[in-house]
Structure formats: structure tokens, C-alpha cells
């Protein structure tokens, strides 16, 4: 099927008008929408006027079977033709009409039809404008909503930033408070861990420098070697008033602290002077700021550190006084060992090197009216001055019961009743041995005390494993038993308190085994060597280390009396027993 096609010559305005009118009728009959027709005809009219201005043109119109109308306008100039293609809902069939067929009436009808198209276009334009106005108003409202939303979002973001800043600040303050409290707890533990005055003074700068102070000075008011001369005025003011003082180029405005002018001794860095003491001012802790100021929270913590340091120093001073009194009383009651034919004695007393563990241990040795000698070792539970006093009472009562002729078991039974009656909440351990000149037998009894250790003349060592009686003072009636052991001449029996053999890291049985090995390693069996033997035993048992309990050791060595050895009275002393200081 051949597509209808025709070429029209446009030589005048009338030709152009007829061609435009003919194409308007064709596109209208083909069902082309009014808007599309108006756009096509407007563009065609403009090209026709342009072609007439250049001397004329040829218009070629082709309707293909697919329902598309092709229009091409060729001008006289060698340029590309103007071409358009319109999709026609109703395909154009049959031969195309000629422009000459359009007369004046046809032109008039085309003109009126053009107005109808224009009216349709204008109507559509009005509707479009109304729609545009509607959308414009809607867009305006949307913009207003967006602006309001942006304002709300910005306000919400600002509030969130403020909340985050507040939370960050709160976290920083909480972390700082936690850090200060942790330091305060650790510092308190360090300060209270020692009862040594000098040790506490040494630890204060170690705790505070360099994080909380660039320099630390502790001035104790009782220290005669450190007068007030040459000290900052703020330090002297703190000692005089008992109030914390701050001296700096600018007011510190710290909680609970008085402000003073900058010190001439430290004009660039502030000083914080804190009184030491719980009830009275014992001294002043002067801190040089690690930077240009002291933070308020840090100052509150430092005030508490100074208070606790003062309490620790006060406790140490009271402990040292109590310890000195207890040790003096303890040493004053230690016995001068007697000189007895056939028996050599050596004793050692060592006070505890730390802790208030002085005053409970004692030893004693004294002759009986029948010529025998009692050797005693004991330990009162508890420590300090009270234990030393009770120890003195027990020692006196023991001697009194012995003078009445009681044996070791009878003496312990009487001591048990006395302690149970007079000191119902206090207990003691004790071991008593009785040596009778001329006989190898030794009678002994013990009340809850570590067993004696014996070294024979040949160096063999044994521990007296007989079960001891209960501790003195335990609230039950009890009768103690005596035991007899062969002790040939040249034998050594060791009486001791638990401080010699007991350690926190090991049980008492392991300590007794160590003592047995140390006695086995002793050299010499002569009485003159007994003092050296006592020192030789202490060395491996203590290893020159600190011990938290006082120690008593009493060595008894049996000997053969020489024929030329003069008889001595029972009360003749051999001199003071040896004691070793801490």
C-alpha cells in the first residue's frame, strides 16, 4: 500500500495560508489533540513566513500507513529542511487534497477553527495556571512547614547538644569524684598500714607528689629541730589557728580554706597549708600547687587526707608510747638466771619488731628450797601493757606456789584456778621443768604450750610429744599431769614461746621442725658454749627478718658437777639474762 504524499509550492502568503488551513483540517480530522495541533501549526506558520521571506519554499506532506503525518519544508537556501512528524490517532487515507482547493470560505472556516483551537489551548492554559497556582500555594505551605520543621530540628539539636554537654560534664565530674575517692581510700589504707611515725611521714610525699602537689613539707610542732623560722606565713597561721590556709597571687576561694596573700617563699605558685591532727594540731602539711591553682574538689580531698594523716600520726605516737611502756615493763620483769651446780642456763628475749605485740611472753628460773631448780616459759594471750601486767602477776603467783612445795603440775593447776577466777577472759600457756641435781630425770608439765625440744649429748634431737594440758584460764576445771624424761649430763632442753616457731606463711609444726634441725646443727657441748648456742639457734629461726610477736628462748644444759666446784647458795644469781632489742 502506497503512502499518500504530495508536494506543495509556497510562493505567496495566500499559498502559505491555504497550506496551513489544509494541514489544520487534516490534523483535526486525524484526531490530533488541540494542544499538539496548536504547537505544530504555530511552528509551521513561523517556518512558512521565514520561507516566504527567503523567496518561497516547497512543503512536502506524507501520511504513512502507521498513522503518522510527516511534514517537511524545503527552502531555496542549501540548508537542512524543517521537518515534523505528528502521530495521528486516525490515520490519513486516500490522496491528499491540494492547497488550491481551499477557497476564501475554506480560509474563513480555518480561521474560525484556529480560534477554537486557541480557545482550547487557552482553556487548558487557564486550567494549568490554576493547577500551578494550587501547587504553588501547596509548595508555599510545604516550604513553611519545612522551615518550621527545620526550626524544630535545630531547636531539638541544640537541646540535644546541651544535654550531651551536660551529660559529658556530669560524667567528667563523676569520674573525677570516683578518682578522688579511690585515691582517698588508697591513701587511707597506706597511712594506716604502719604504726611507725617516720614511715608515715615518708609515705605522705610519695602519695601526693607529683599529681596533687609539686612539693610537700611536713612540719611537726613537737619537732624541736624544725622551728617556725623560715616557714611560710600561711603555714604558721595554719598551726596557730587550726584552719587550712591558702596563699597565692589570686584568691583561691576554696571550700573551708582561708585566703592569704602570696608567700614570699613561693610567689609564683600557690601554697595550701593543712593542719594535721584529729583532736589537736600536731603539725602542718604544706603543699605547693602542681600548676597555677588547686581545684576545689581536689582541695576537699586533700583536707580529708590531711585529717587522716593526722589520725595516723596520732595513733603511731600513742602506739609508740604504749609499746615503750610495755617493753620497759616486760624487760624489768625478766629474771636474772641463777647459777646452780650441774645446770647451765641461757635465755634470750626479743620484742616484736612491728605491731603492738609486746608484753605477753616471759621466762623464769629459780631454785627451790629442796635444791631443785624450776625453769619456766610462758605466754599470755593479748599484747601490750595489760598483758605485761598479767604476766607479772602470773610470774609472782608461780613463784609463790613453788615455794609451798608444789611440783610443775600442781603449780599449773593452781595458776589455772587463779586465772580463771581473777581474769576470766584472759588465757595463758606455760611449760615448767624441774631439774634435781644429781639425778638425770627431769619432771615437766605444760599448759597448752609448744613442746620442749631436747638435744642429747651425742647430738640426737627429739621433741617431747606428750600431750599438753589445756591453756591456763580456759573456763573448765582441770588437773594437769607431770611427765618425766631422762636427761643425761651434756643434754640441752629448749623452752620457747610460739613467736620463735610460728609464722603466718607456715604452721607451728613446721617451725618446731626447723628448731629441731637447728639444735641438731649446734656444735660443742660445754656449758660455756650455751650463750653462743642461744645465738646460733636464733639466727636460722629468724633469718634476720621482722617478726610480729615477741620471742622468749630458755636453754637448760645438764652438766656433771666437778669435785672442786664450790657449793653455792640457792639464791646466788649468775647475772642478768641477755635480751636482744628490736
Provide keyphrases for this structure.
single chain; rod-shaped; six-stranded mixed beta sheet; 43% helix; alpha+beta; 582 residues; 11 helices
Give the topology:
Elements: E1 5-10, H1 13-29, H2 34-53, E2 57-64, E3 68-74, E4 82-87, H3 104-192, H4 197-208, E5 215-220, H5 233-241, E6 245-247, E7 258-260, E8 271-276, E9 283-288, H6 296-332, E10 336-338, E11 343-350, E12 361-367, E13 373-380, H7 385-403, H8 408-422, E14 428-435, E15 441-447, E16 453-455, E17 461-463, E18 483-486, E19 492-496, H9 498-501, H10 508-520, H11 530-542, E20 551-558, E21 573-576, E22 578-579
- Summed over residues and divided by their number, the pLDDT gives a mean of 84
- How many beta-strand elements? 22
- Point out poorly predicted stretches: 564-577
How many alpha or pi helices? 11
Rg measurement, Å: 60 Å
Strand content: 15-25%
Helix/strand structural class: alpha+beta
Note the overall shape. Answer: rod-shaped
End-to-end Cα distance, whole Å, is: 135 Å
Order of strands, main sheet, comes to 17-16-19-20-11-22
**Sheet bearing the most strands, described?**
6 strands, mixed
- Helical content stands at 40-55%
